[in-house]
Amino acid sequence: METFTFMVPGLYGGSNGGNEHSASAKMVEKFGEIGVPEESAIGAVNGYSYWGSMSSLSETTSGPVYLGAIICFLFIFGLFYVNTWHKWWIIAASVVGILLAWGSNFMGFNSFMLDYLPFYSKFRAPSMALVIPQFCIPVLAVLALNKLVTETDYQAAFKKLKLGVIATGAVIAILAAFWLMADYTGKGDKDIKQGFVQNFSRTQPGQQPNPQAVQQAEDMSKNLMSALREDRKSEAGGDLLRTFY
pLDDT, tens digit, for every residue of 3-22? Predict the structure, then answer.
């Protein structure tokens, strides 16, 4: 599903360390209740915003590969509308690039490519392969737009346009269903919560925290993580609405 950040950049929280969230975030509010300065709270919620496949605390991402809703729509329209041979190599290259970028999420394909595709093992990360669809998808979008502005058979073009709108609507419906059903929990959330618990239950060196302090720390950490998931959902929903409009 993270591939759909082509259309909805905030679907998985954007980045860890960006500026996706502001002082209005739920997590900032919860931090404020326990006396954490607003600036530090905003930094924390932005640091933990991303919850995709690279969201363990040992990994970082500066953000998704975003192509733009209009470019993606024109690409989908081009799948039905463009009838030159260029369309097929563009589709094939885009699909291969995406499959390569899936890395360990599709090892049946990528382990084979790692062994037999020349220089592929030299990639710093599999996600570098996304440069292929980054190039190809806009090319097909431009071909579709070029054909449309020089079109003479408007009735046939309108039929293809309707198919493109229906297909794009289906994609948006899938994303809306995902937005409703996702748990907005990342791989590093357990470690994030544990870090909160340790900080909130910290005592003087050599002293053991009492059970009441530990329980209070657990409750505060649970509330913070719940607020973080709400913020992630809000970010994804806001970007999904922008894509739709």
Answer: 999 999 999 998 888 888 89
Cβ count near 182 (within 10 Å):
16
d(CA 158, CA 54): 42
Residue type, position 226, single letter: S
In degrees, rounded to 5, the angle at the alpha carbon of residue 34 between the alpha carbons of residues 52 and 188 is: 20
Cβ neighbours, 10 Å, residue 194? 11
- pTM for this predicted structure: 0.87
- In terms of Cα–Cα distance, which of 77, 33, 20 is closest to 216? 33
Q: Tell me how many degrees the CA angle 160-162-168 measures, rounded to the nearest 5.
A: 105
The pair of three-digit structure tokens given for residue 170, joined into one six-digit string: 């289906």
Q: pLDDT tens digit string along 119-151? A: 877 777 888 889 999 999 999 999 999 999 988
Residue for token digits 């041979």?
A: 85
Q: Which of 36-45, 69-78, 113-122 has the lowest mean pLDDT?
A: 113-122
Contacts of 163 (CB under 8 A, 6+ apart): 77, 80
Nearest to 78 by CA among 137, 144, 157, 163: 144
| Residue from 219, 216, 230 nearest 185 by CA | 230
| CA-based nearest residue to 167, from 87, 65, 78, 67 | 78
29 vs 17: CA distance, rounded Å = 19
Output the six-digit token pair for 45: 């919620």
- Name the one residue in this structure whose structure tokens are 């024109």: 74
